[in-house]
Amino acid sequence: MGRRPFSLSAYLAYARGRGATPTATPAARPAGPLLWLHAGGPGSARALCALATRLKIQRPELTLLVTGQPEHAPEGALRSDLPGENPAEVAGFVEHWRPQLGFWTGQDLRPALLQKLDEAGTRLVLLDARDAPWTSPAPSWVPDPAAATLQFFDRICPVDEAARRRLRRAGVEEHAIPGLGALTDSAPPLDCNDALYEEMAGVLTGRPIWLAAKLRSAQEAEEVLHAHKRAVRLAHRLLLILVPATRELAPQIAEVARDSGLRLCAWEAGEMPDENTQVVVTEDASELGLWYRLAPVAFLGGSLISGHGGEDPMEAAAHGIALLYGPNVGRHLPAYSRLAEAGAARIVRDFDSLAGALSQLVAPDRAAAMAHAGWDVITQGAELTDEMIALACRWLDEDEAA
Q1: Is residue 21 within a helix (H) or strand (E), and if so which, with residue range?
Q2: Which reaction does it catalyse (predicted)?
Q3: For residue 18, how many C-alpha atoms fall within 13 Å in the half-sphere facing its CB?
Q4: Band of the pLDDT at 212, cuts 50, 70, 90?
């Protein structure tokens, strides 16, 4: 074993002086291999969940343990709090769970815990490494242990070239950062009735279409309809498909649509849109797979009016669609930021800016460019997920053979 860097030794000395914090008794550890997933930031748990779920299909004997901010967790996964950095707490966590593999996300590091896992032989992967400072529980007077802590990871996946350069400056060797990419939830597109799609595509051929998906309030629907009215002045054949997030919201949203003065088609009543239809009103999101395939542009609801936190944009992006969204997307901010940076999504502040964006995206080439950018993000995330699954299976095979 090589000599520890001074920064790490100083941090571990500091951690030894910290008192232990009371923790709940952990669940029993099942026999067999265990994969530990740490969701260190908002938005990362869903992608980790998708990765772990696919890995467990190939390795059904694998137990999953989730720590951090697990707003999503795989079915049947165990949950635990992270231990404090006191040596006794760290040792207790590692000796109890004995993970073969660990996937870590977030810029906040736990040097004592990661060092102990490395000593125990756990293979560690750092996902979604960003061009941002690394943090740890170290006080300001302790030398920063981040660079030394990064050496405990067998593989690090930076999201872009800027993040890779930061890792190199921290002393991470090139073989540990072989590629770039952000982990995304690469769920397959929603189901769609093929015969109905073919029929609707024939009915709507030649018409510009946009979708307002999963609207969360009558007020949001009113804003969307105002934007549609304005956009129709420049593209008189523009058709809006209005989809409430839940069936309970449908009566309120339908009433707002009737009061708009626009020519409506009530989908659930069996009506079909014709040349004069300006808005298709649905009652819920059960056929969203159909609408995502028909509309090249979608506004995602729960985002224009505060209080809902937005909808997951990756579901829509998986269908190859240009995305518009409001400013209130706190629940899925990392995903929206990733798509916006790639040119696949565009923020709008109110019905006026929504109408302006629609008027631009009526041009098929502009919508197609955004949709292609979104597909690139989804594809890159799927490739990274496949790579991580293959790597995990290889490491598990090596452990079994040892």
Answers
A1: none
A2: lipid IVA (E. coli) + CMP-3-deoxy-beta-D-manno-octulosonate = alpha-Kdo-(2->6)-lipid IVA (E. coli) + CMP + H(+)
A3: 20
A4: very high
